[in-house]
Amino acid sequence: MNRDTLTTLFKQVALGEIEPEDAAERIASLPFEELDFAKIDHHRQLRRGFPEVVFAEGKSSEHLLGILDHLASRDTPILLTRVDAAKAEVLAAAHPTLTHNALARTMHRGAMPATGRGEILILSAGTSDLPVVEEAAVSARVLGNEVTVINDVGVAGLHRLAAARDAIRRATAIIVVAGMEGALASVVAGLVDVPVIGVPTSVGYGASFNGVAALLSMLNSCAGGVSVVNIDNGFGAAVVASLINRGPAALREARE
Amino acid sequence: MNRDTLTTLFKQVALGEIEPEDAAERIASLPFEELDFAKIDHHRQLRRGFPEVVFAEGKSSEHLLGILDHLASRDTPILLTRVDAAKAEVLAAAHPTLTHNALARTMHRGAMPATGRGEILILSAGTSDLPVVEEAAVSARVLGNEVTVINDVGVAGLHRLAAARDAIRRATAIIVVAGMEGALASVVAGLVDVPVIGVPTSVGYGASFNGVAALLSMLNSCAGGVSVVNIDNGFGAAVVASLINRGPAALREARE
Amino acid sequence: MNRDTLTTLFKQVALGEIEPEDAAERIASLPFEELDFAKIDHHRQLRRGFPEVVFAEGKSSEHLLGILDHLASRDTPILLTRVDAAKAEVLAAAHPTLTHNALARTMHRGAMPATGRGEILILSAGTSDLPVVEEAAVSARVLGNEVTVINDVGVAGLHRLAAARDAIRRATAIIVVAGMEGALASVVAGLVDVPVIGVPTSVGYGASFNGVAALLSMLNSCAGGVSVVNIDNGFGAAVVASLINRGPAALREARE
Amino acid sequence: MNRDTLTTLFKQVALGEIEPEDAAERIASLPFEELDFAKIDHHRQLRRGFPEVVFAEGKSSEHLLGILDHLASRDTPILLTRVDAAKAEVLAAAHPTLTHNALARTMHRGAMPATGRGEILILSAGTSDLPVVEEAAVSARVLGNEVTVINDVGVAGLHRLAAARDAIRRATAIIVVAGMEGALASVVAGLVDVPVIGVPTSVGYGASFNGVAALLSMLNSCAGGVSVVNIDNGFGAAVVASLINRGPAALREARE
Amino acid sequence: MNRDTLTTLFKQVALGEIEPEDAAERIASLPFEELDFAKIDHHRQLRRGFPEVVFAEGKSSEHLLGILDHLASRDTPILLTRVDAAKAEVLAAAHPTLTHNALARTMHRGAMPATGRGEILILSAGTSDLPVVEEAAVSARVLGNEVTVINDVGVAGLHRLAAARDAIRRATAIIVVAGMEGALASVVAGLVDVPVIGVPTSVGYGASFNGVAALLSMLNSCAGGVSVVNIDNGFGAAVVASLINRGPAALREARE
Amino acid sequence: MNRDTLTTLFKQVALGEIEPEDAAERIASLPFEELDFAKIDHHRQLRRGFPEVVFAEGKSSEHLLGILDHLASRDTPILLTRVDAAKAEVLAAAHPTLTHNALARTMHRGAMPATGRGEILILSAGTSDLPVVEEAAVSARVLGNEVTVINDVGVAGLHRLAAARDAIRRATAIIVVAGMEGALASVVAGLVDVPVIGVPTSVGYGASFNGVAALLSMLNSCAGGVSVVNIDNGFGAAVVASLINRGPAALREARE
Amino acid sequence: MNRDTLTTLFKQVALGEIEPEDAAERIASLPFEELDFAKIDHHRQLRRGFPEVVFAEGKSSEHLLGILDHLASRDTPILLTRVDAAKAEVLAAAHPTLTHNALARTMHRGAMPATGRGEILILSAGTSDLPVVEEAAVSARVLGNEVTVINDVGVAGLHRLAAARDAIRRATAIIVVAGMEGALASVVAGLVDVPVIGVPTSVGYGASFNGVAALLSMLNSCAGGVSVVNIDNGFGAAVVASLINRGPAALREARE
Amino acid sequence: MNRDTLTTLFKQVALGEIEPEDAAERIASLPFEELDFAKIDHHRQLRRGFPEVVFAEGKSSEHLLGILDHLASRDTPILLTRVDAAKAEVLAAAHPTLTHNALARTMHRGAMPATGRGEILILSAGTSDLPVVEEAAVSARVLGNEVTVINDVGVAGLHRLAAARDAIRRATAIIVVAGMEGALASVVAGLVDVPVIGVPTSVGYGASFNGVAALLSMLNSCAGGVSVVNIDNGFGAAVVASLINRGPAALREARE
What we know:
Number of helices of chain A: 11
Number of strands of chain A: 9
Largest interface: C-D, 50 and 49 residues
Oligomer: homooctamer
Number of domains of chain A: 2
Structural class of chain A: alpha/beta
Largest sheet of chain A: 5 strands, parallel
CATH topology of the largest domain in chain A: Rossmann fold
């Protein structure tokens, strides 16, 4: 219910088409998201056409099937993250149109139209980081972005960044996926002029504390321009990068 | 040294103007940043005109004076962060053109030209977070951004966000500064369609562990679009927001 | 042994029915709970009719069967928590009158009479929190309370709280079950005038540290009225809420 | 703005006293708390007459004076917590009607009328816990509760609990304040039938980790009925206990 | 009230000297420690003549003076630990008979008679550990033990242990005080046949985490016979060593 | 080689029965423990007849079989701890004389003669702590002690301690085994006059952090006389208690 | 491309054999490691003939096979670490020339020529540390070092070090592998004059926190000369020891 | 006492010059370090001429003066670390020949002769790390090494490493001093072929946790050849580097 429909309601009251008490009741009983507060809820507006994202970890296959049955009837894109192999088998049987990426542990259908200003570049430190890289890549594509991935650019192989020149030039945001000491985020941020979103991974052992070492390293980056998401949170990094790449609705519209 | 100057060098060798050994020596002894690798160092290019930023904590007044003497002769903006009262007094006496913001613990001179696509909005949860808010605001302005600040929008006063509607509409990035349980970042991210940069603050006591509670809260945000910088790192958030607001050089140029 | 039986004993001594030495021996050899100290042990008094609660984790099926054999002969309600599937199968075979809730990992028989002043409302942030929600709900019902459960009221779906209006009005205590950043406890506490018992859950990954992020978030709530129980401790929250809902014995009796 | 005033508005529109567009504007521009959503905001209703509480830590004396100037003109009770000696001196000079409790680090004026069903009992383990005890006691009294305090009931002096019998009988909620190993909360909870709110304190040294040991001890209490607030958070415990003691508005009204 | 006085009471009732109701009241109103439960409270019995020990940290000088006024009238030994210089000055002025040990931060008067079976040996790793060593030594002596102290027996100077042969032979318990990596406890425990009580100290920096490294090292000792008290807890180690040295009351009496 | 055998050696040299060079070689080639240093190594002397203890965790069945083959030929008692079911089966097949305690995860053969001054009492908080209790009990018995075990004496069932009176009177050391909040160690230490050895267990969940809560609780015990061993370290507690119960060699001999 | 080949290139240009533009292109398109920067990359020079090391954890068998196919065609040594049993079986089937060490979890082929100045000595505290010892030993040998291993030299068996005299004399670096309290590193460092590289292992339980206790112990060593690598990082210790044993290229060449 | 003197002793006994009992006594009463075990104590031999190093933190000025009076009479070099300003003033007054470095917080006199094979290179990430750099540099020089220091080589200024080429070529060990995210150690280790000793510093704030972030980063370095010492432990790094630079005694002698 936006201001227009609200004005219409008042007009109907003024015309005697609706009783004042009925009109008051109608507003009072509206679901919250219909209230005027939604005016600042650009996000909700944005989400029209936005993929429905389901975090599958900790949900039973039964719950997931129920959610999918609900979603499948809409025409928006669908994305499930953290789908383990057993659940994926169950879901795929019931929803064969879903694409399953076993490495990324994602299932998805469709994608938003690409409206970004540039590309999202994903750099990773090592091949052990691939599951997180894939989750970020699948997510960013479903969210409507062009994505380039360059793997295995560890601190011991920085020269491979040279091959990334063109991709860096096209990027509006760079996702750096790294475990162990996570130094790559700092090194990359020192070389580029776009925001770097660090994704620490749980790759490592011992005093890596399942990604804490990389997390702290990225949070304390001495190079400006690094912000961080949760350990192994490829999806989260994709959302942030996507919001950067697309820009706010107002600017997107201005571009159109 | 880019490819052109390299070609020129080879031509001089071909013409006998330079001996092969001397040419080889010349390349070998070049500072690293002159090598072709610099081609992807857009950051460096960007930094022309970028303020020199000095982290004053842990540096003696003598060291800071030495650095300032070096910087003052250039015409770029200057920004010092984490300047305590005692150092500020010493530095102000020697460099009276520096503006001192005691709350933000910053000193600065000049600012970059504003080239952003929109504004940076800074929201804070409580008045105890003000020093970090101010550091972010001063930094973002020196970095060449329009900045709006709305304080004291805690979870218990979310309705004040309504007053922020216009600012939210103008924002290309939102910095959320919050201590204690840091829930504000999640709540805001659920309402907007631009990236939210969370700055956990050390405001709190006991099990806030000097900001760790807020940090973890923001890292685990169930709302998409939140990335995080270090505890109390107002400056870092400003750099990230600034990179988002301005966009990469290529796009900036395209806009011009 | 309360004051009355004690007086009776003294009277028997005064009447010569019992020798002084025998009477002294009788008191000295009483189990501790029979001593006068029990006068302040309202809890014990309360527990008459209170369900026997067994924490099954770490106990072998043999131990549990032994305990159940002991309990089954009494007519009080029985509640077992943290019963995994394997143990549940063994116990159900021997005690078919026990109701097994696989999601809650509980088994129970009977319930206390409902004597509360109102209802207990359980709100959860996401469907992954359901096992903890169920443990709290089963426990609260066995403890003699009316219970309403509203799931999936995450920070990104606060508007669903509107549907909870009536339940909130009926509630004397609200249990908020949330993992990840646990912000829901703060948000709810800002909207109601009854105590909020936060149950952080281990739902999440990476820097959620198995529920520590949610735990810290709730402990540092900027909204008054939140207290917290252990991670995933649905049962513990139910006990606290139950004590609030029923009030102390003296007041309950006054109500009757 | 409740449903009545909303109906009135519609009637005015129906009568032509207000133009439909103006009426729509009026709703759209209302502060959020005026919207119908406030219907579930019992807390806000409750807060009429509720003391304004200011957390002074991290706020400058200037900010606090500004807030106090704002509050002093209202006739509600005022409570400031975490006021150190220096700030207290400044505030007392400007607002001599404020009562300063140096041990509790509180300043307050007035109190809510006592409407609780019983008393709040505060038990502490040692005399080093007194500042937290006092903060809880002052807060609970300002919030309109009868309060009894019994100090120094450590695990090594449990027999003193006997002296607390009557107070325990009158209590609707018990606040247990304890540092070091914090065992008192468990021991007390095993003896009573009202909720125990544990306040771990930072009293201790070494592996007490400034209250973490007591916090964990209370969170893991093997006795049912314990919930916990932040370390040293006497005020927070008082709010929880106060909500328990008073009960929800509906029940209060029913009692009246 | 032991069984004898209880029997006497019953006899008085039997003789009609006391009314049954009055006798019942008399038992019901006894302080808890007078009840028969005290029969297993050997500690209490032991404490007759035991020094009163006051932990001064976190207590104001006023509180301490009040406690001392109370204690000074008894003829038992007195021990205060963690008395900082400022408080010591105030207390010494009012109670000049107290002996102040500035290094140990203790004040004491008198000591229990020495009834131990042997000596307590205190070994320390370095001279920085001296304050904790002194606290342990003063405490152990006031508790009635012969004490030998050998300092500076770090892992790099194990040969000095040779000089400790006779002391080791006389010891019934050995207190090992060590900071940094705390290896001394393990090394000593590998060489002796009496219990080793490890006292980790906060000596160190960086990753010693104020004694946590030494604490963990001692808890994980690969040599049998080491148990541990809190960081810097010289007093606590002295109590444990004293209980070992003296043995339980029954055995002490058998020795006499 | 003690001083007597050394003197004998010199005498043989003096008598010409052994050549000086051969005698020097004999000393030089002695294993280190045979050197005079053994004079302060009472432990080693003690270990004659002491059971060989093998920590089986992390050792392969092959390694364990090798060690057992070596040990089986001696006539000293043998004790293996942390033997999981699979290894136990392999070892039992090869060494049928070993007694396997599945709950304690121990295997042993024989025991030292009981030479202690009294008994070791083991108290546990709950039945989930039984594996650790059993490890302590088996170990203490193999080490030559009389042992009494009383289980399930949680803080909510302190009255059961009354049944422990006689055992407490006979005890020279008390082992308290408790998980969750570990308060039992403090409560027991407040009632007895012998050393309490706290064994925190990993029983619990969430913020028990696998025993850390109980560990910290015990380390911060406000009751004197508690020292602590590693989490779940029943064996370690048995060694400490055994050393206390038996006393140093010198005193043992004096008793004989 | 070193300075010689660069000079050659310039000479070819001078001779007209190569066009200046082509020469510039050739440099510009070289992979980074071919650039002159390699002049300070002694490591890279060293790596000629250096084994390719692959960290197998977190990589799928498919990825590993791909990498091995790539490596197998070169004639350099190959080393894989952290190869679990399942992957080892797959890889061994495809590459039968690889030697598999199941205890060390390594696979390797060939080794560098031994050019060290002495030997690497590996000491371990217990047999449970063997997997880490083996990883270090295999790695050090493949890296071209003479290696001596002495196991089971715990703090309780220091005398066995006597047997290590000759090995200590030959060692240029000593790797100490120890879990639990990790005291061995300090003890050894106090006895030798070569660098000690501590490898904390995850051997232990409870408060060993999977190797953190040993890690902290080694980091806080009171004996000079200890530096530390990650928990269980036998390979990393071998690399450090190898660099020490071989010395920098310049010195190696001087020796030749 | 080595085998020769032992043989001599036996011969004297054989000749009747010494009584067997006296000879036995002589061995038994030898200080431990005189025993044959000292044969492997190369360290002790090495320490002849080695500076006496005193860790001043936690020691009173009085203790330090006592130690210095003892040391000053020897002719060996002296080094004190962690001397704060107040102590330095006291010590300098009494021992004017000591050189005080206020930044490094060291005092020293003399130095060992330089016998290293090359130089020690110290690299630091930022000027805030200078105190630790200075402590390392002073220590390394007093320990008899040539030292080169290059500061401010952060990840954002890696090109400055080019200026370090010659120093890198001369180095036998490189100390990398870095706070914040500590990435420099990994980056440097990827470029050189000598051991890198990482010194994490407490420079930073928030989630740097006083150096823990840098410590973890260095421990998890993905580049081989990094080992780590304690946070801020410049002295410790200097000892390790010195041992590497000098090599074991045997090799040093072979070089001479």
